[in-house]
Amino acid sequence: MAAQISYRRVYEDVSPQDGQRVLVDRVWPRGMRKEDAHLDEWLREVAPSTELRQWYGHDPERFVEFRRRYLAELRDADHREAVGHLRELADRDALTLLTATRDVDHSQAAVLAEWLAKRKH
């Protein structure tokens, strides 16, 4: 059975189904203490570039283009090691990608979860 890959807000309560909890934001979540996040890892290297994040501004009308640009970034050398590590985590256990973004369905966590699920063996 393939491990589950999900995504949600880092501010939500921890669930026993979370498996590995990985924050995929470049910036630490506002108002969140590190011990309250219950993270296994903070993998900021897999987050969108600052330039892309600022261009997107979480505008749902820009999501399709954001997704295209972000997927292109994931293929570049700057992301290679972090992407490989994330794939390894997804292959081993249930994985929950966490973000502080309010609209999680239009976030990098959603893009990553879909992308990782398509790449599973």
Mind summarizing the main beta sheet? 4 strands, parallel
Order of helices and strands: EEHEHHHEH
Give the beta-strand count.
4
**Strand order of the biggest β-sheet:** 1-4-2-3
Overall pLDDT, averaged? 92
Uncertain segments are none
How large, in whole angstroms, is the Cα Rg?
Answer: 13 Å
CA(first)-CA(last) distance: 11 Å
Number of helices: 5
Strand content is 5-15%
How would you describe the shape?
globular
Percent of residues in helical segments? 40-55%
Structural class, by secondary structure, is alpha/beta
Give a summary of the structure in a few sentences.
With 121 residues, this protein is of the alpha/beta class.
How would you describe what is shown here?
Helix 1 (34-37) links the parallel strand 2 and strand 3. With 121 residues, the protein is an alpha/beta fold. It starts with a strand and ends with a helix. The longest helix is centred in the C-terminal third of the chain and has 16 residues, at 77-92. The model has no long low-confidence stretch (mean pLDDT 92). A 4-stranded parallel beta sheet has the order 1-4-2-3, with helices on one face. It has helices spanning 34-37, 50-56, 63-74, 77-92, 108-119, and strands at residues 5-9, 20-23, 41-42, 95-99. Helix content is 42%, strand content 13%.
